[in-house]
Amino acid sequence: MGKIFISAGHGGFEGSFRDLSEMTGGAMETAELAATRDLVIAELRSRGISISIPSDDLNLTEAIAWINARATPQDVALSLQIDIANTSELRGTTAYYITNNALRKRQAEILTSALTKRVPEIINRGAKADTIASIGSLSFCRQISVPSILLELVFSNNSQDKLLMQTRRRDYAIGIADGLQAWINETATTIPVYTPSNRPTTIKPVTYPEININLNGQSYEEKGILVSGNVFVPADLVDRLGFDLNQIPLTCRLRYQSIVYIQAIALRELNTSVSWDSTTRTLHLKTIFKVFTGQIDQIMGVGNTSEVQMLMFLKNNNETVLTNYSDLPHIYREEAEIEGVNHDIAFCQMCIETGFLRFVKGIEPEQNNFASLGAAASSKTNGAGASFADQRTGVRAHIQQLKAYASNAPLFQPLVAPRFNLVARGIAPVLHQLTGRWAIDPLYDRKILSLIRRLYESAGIF
């Protein structure tokens, strides 16, 4: 049996972005996690299970490196986290695992089941693939060299969840320990343990299966490799695409058989479409045309998708949209074209703000507010944001507010955006400049860009 690495609340900056899905909300949440972790550790040690803990002073990248430097094949790693949601109604515990890994999914289910068995009042939100995270993947699930799972215990902005963990912390710890013990016992049965009498005289080198690479519709001459569910491509391919390797974190690289490989998912941040065909074991890479590269984040400009492509993208993410919003893509294209705004950006921002028209941020559908626009100072809305008479007026207000930030040009339509005149005109012509102005989420622009890339992938534009 190996040891268990337990990380609690390690979060921080990845590249230049703070990953909110991999960090806790503040000092209080950090203290809650630390207290729970300490009880879990005490419980596991009382059962004779070996534990190793990265220092609380480390950020996420450093904690991952610390674990990888000390891990052996028999070990497992668990990250304890506290979630936060846009609404205080969400509750429960969730275990995240690396996508397309059935074994890890089952092990994640073991953890949530053990915890909710010990504390039945907890809502079991189950095991979820890490690809549903806002940035597309979770580093703790992918960059740890041993089996790893990220367990979110509660939602910090739900009073019932917080009270439950504070009053039943001991039961939380026992439930987590039960799940971890079951997990590591299962892992131990699948990994041979060598004693001096049967230890092999030579250690076989690690080998990874090869995968095919298709680049812009053509078969690439070199092969990639598959490592713990992650696809890696030769670094030479990245150089040949003209990308700067310095933009890719060192944690996304590995050296294998004297060749440096890059984690394929990291290429998405370099305007490259990444998709996987499991039947042919082929990684498909498509690069955006250079004309897109300089325009994809420019708010003023022309979009590239058609109304049908936008509508199908909406439907694929929310099957009910056709009932009430079948004309919305047409309205967005039309209103954006009139004011010279990139409709792809406006449309994807709408998808982020409304949760693909599910309206999860406290704004009601009948408000026709598709971008979380605030009301004018003189309007009394009880903090629920601005309201508009119909969908077209709501879209027009969204487009006008984008134009206020991105341009000094006059409007061509009558003013309907309630806070248009409160903006320093032209202060944010590029998408990343909206972060901190339109929303406080430090990943705001990155989420919109990620959605634009997904839209282009679904439309076959690149």
What is the secondary structure topology, with strand pairs?
Layout: E1 4-8, E2 13-14, E3 17-18, H1 27-46, E4 51-52, H2 60-70, E5 76-83, E6 93-97, H3 102-118, E7 124-129, H4 139-142, E8 148-155, H5 159-167, H6 169-190, E9 210-215, E10 218-219, E11 224-227, E12 230-234, H7 235-240, E13 253-256, E14 259-263, E15 272-277, E16 282-287, H8 290-293, H9 307-317, H10 321-325, H11 328-339, H12 343-354, H13 391-406, H14 444-459
Helix pairs in contact: 1-6, 3-6, 9-11, 11-12, 11-13, 12-14
Tag the structure with descriptive keywords.
alpha/beta; 8-stranded mixed beta sheet; 3 domains; Lysozyme; 6-stranded mixed beta sheet
Explain what you see.
By secondary structure, the protein is an alpha/beta fold. The protein has three domains: 4-190, 3-Layer(aba) Sandwich (Aminopeptidase), CATH 3.40.630; 210-287, no CATH class; 307-459, Lysozyme (Orthogonal Bundle), CATH 1.10.530. It has 14 helices and 16 strands. The chain has helices at residues 27-46, 60-70, 102-118, 139-142, 159-167, 169-190, 235-240, 290-293, 307-317, 321-325, 328-339, 343-354, 391-406, 444-459; strands at residues 4-8, 13-14, 17-18, 51-52, 76-83, 93-97, 124-129, 148-155, 210-215, 218-219, 224-227, 230-234, 253-256, 259-263, 272-277, 282-287. Strands 9, 10, 11, 12, 13, 14, 15 and 16 form an eight-stranded mixed sheet that branches. A six-stranded mixed sheet has the order 4-1-5-8-6-7. Strands 2-3 form a two-stranded antiparallel ribbon. A hairpin with a 2-residue loop joins β2 and β3. α1 (27-46) packs across α6 and α11 (328-339) packs across α12. It is globular and about 70 Å long. The model is unreliable at 12-27 and 188-201 (pLDDT under 50).
